[in-house]
Design goal:
Layout (H helix, E strand, L loop, with lengths): L8 H23 L10 E2 L1 H8 L3 H9 L6 E3 L2 E5 H9 L9 H13 L6 H4 L4
Antiparallel strand pairs: 1-3, 2-3
Helix pairs in contact: 2-3
């Protein structure tokens, strides 16, 4: 290591600070912020729709069926990025079950739909 003169000290300290910052960034990437409090970034409905490549109405339907993590205050829906990412990592399952179970329940509801008797459809006797 070279001997640093008094005149070179400010430049050396500046370079050292830069290197420590780079090192901290690399450590943070490797550890994935584990052990630190992760910040909860708030996402809008449009942000979630873009992230999942779905329409806003699909996201509304998913919240209605409790298939996606969300929070609601009054008429407003809130999503947290870390919860959505965790939900994706778990295979997109949350709440009432997976999509296959949802589709089975949907088919059961469609099959049990009651229809008017033909005698009532014509309007007369």
């Amino acid at each position: 290591m070279d001997n640093i003169t008094f005149e070179q000290l400010p430049q050396a300290v500046s370079m050292l600070i830069e290197k420590v910052g780079q090192l901290a960034d690399k450590v943070e990437k490797v550890l994935g912020n584990t052990g630190q409090r992760q910040e909860r970034r708030l996402l809008t409905l449009d942000d979630v729709a873009t992230l999942l490549n779905k329409s806003s109405s699909t996201i509304y339907a998913m919240t209605s069926d409790k298939r996606i993590p969300y929070h609601k205050r009054g008429n407003k829906l809130y999503f947290f990025e870390n919860e959505i990412i965790a939900w994706i990592e778990q295979g997109g399952t949350s709440g009432t079950g997976n999509e296959e179970e949802f589709n089975k329940r949907l088919e059961a509801l469609r099959g049990s739909k009651r229809r008017k008797p033909d005698s009532l459809k014509t309007g007369g006797m």
